[in-house]
Structures are given as C-alpha cells and as structure tokens.
Amino acid sequence: xxxxxxxxxxxxxxxxxxxxxxxxxxxxxxxxxxxxxxxxxxxxxxxxxxxxxxxxxxxxxxxxxxxxxxxxxxxxxxxxxxxxxxxxxxxxxxxxxxxxxxxxxxxxxxxxxxxxxxxxxxxxxxxxxxxxxxxxxxxxxxxxxxxxxxxxxxxxxxxxxxxxxxxxxxxxxxxxxxxxxxxxxxxxxxxxxxxxxx
Length: 198
Description:
The chain is mainly α. It has one domain (3-188). The protein is built from eight helices and two strands. A two-stranded antiparallel ribbon has the order 1-2. A hairpin with a 6-residue loop joins strand 1 (92-100) and strand 2 (107-115). It is globular, with a radius of gyration of 17 Å. The termini are close together.
C-alpha cells in the first residue's frame, strides 16, 4: 500500500472501532508525524518506508483472527493492536550505509535507517504514554501494550519475566497481542515484499 492507502486503512480501523474522545486528535497527530513513512525496524521486519503502519495493520488483523468469542471488547482489541508500536514515531532517521553488491562485489551506498531515540522511556511504556495523551486506556489495554514484546522485551530478566507472567494471567489480551505481533512479524511479513512505499 502507498502512504495514502495506509492512512485510509489506519483511519478506517480506528474510527470504525474506537469511539472514545481523542481519536480524531490522535489521527491528526499520526498524519502530522512520520508514522506512514517510518519503517518498522532498521533491518528485520518491514525495514522499508511505510513498514510501521503496514506492520500495525498486520498485527491488528492477526489479533482479530485470534479472538473469536473471547469477550474482549473490539475497542480494546483495536487500541492494543493499533497502538502497540506508536513508540516508533520519530524513532528512525533515513540514512545510508555501504553494502556489498553480491553480484559485482563492489561496495555501494544503500538506504538505511539509524535509530534516533529522543525519548528513551522503554518500548511498551512509551506507546502507553503516547496514547494516554489522547485517550484514557483501560488496565487491560495498558498491560497488553506495555508487554506486547513478551520475552523479547529489552532488559528482560527474571523479575521482568515474573511481571510479564503476572500481566498475562491478569489480562488475556497480553499474550494474545504478543502472539499476534509474532505472527505478523514472522509469518505474514516474511511473505510480503519489503519495497519502499512510493
């Protein structure tokens, strides 16, 4: 999808499922940021222009497919999935690096993204804080977004493992969002072409 299509799809999901005060202001903030241009990572999944918005939609679709008859409100599903990686807004800076051309053996300048974290608060925590500037989150939504990386949470040690387990016991949305993120990253996006969005 190109930027306009990503924006339209994103806004349709938010507006179709979330009826809280602040949604319009949040969508205006996304439109005024690099959200629809940013990659999802520097070199792993969807490390291309538009990757962040594409990944977010993929996670939402995976989460919806995991959740028939769970009793979790559609609004919470949408907020958790669509809000889980908002911490990556303003996080990547387009750059270049040298890359060896496998065919010719020559070194060439290739597009790259550098990390420029201007608000080092923690991955999940930063997304929760970002969203709470626009709307009030439920306990379950905060827990799911905070812990969406599961065992891949930076700095994960025994204490954090215990905290993740407790969060997963308290809120089924925690392990479900984590599973949807893994499925999107390693299954859906492994099959997608990661070309730059026009």
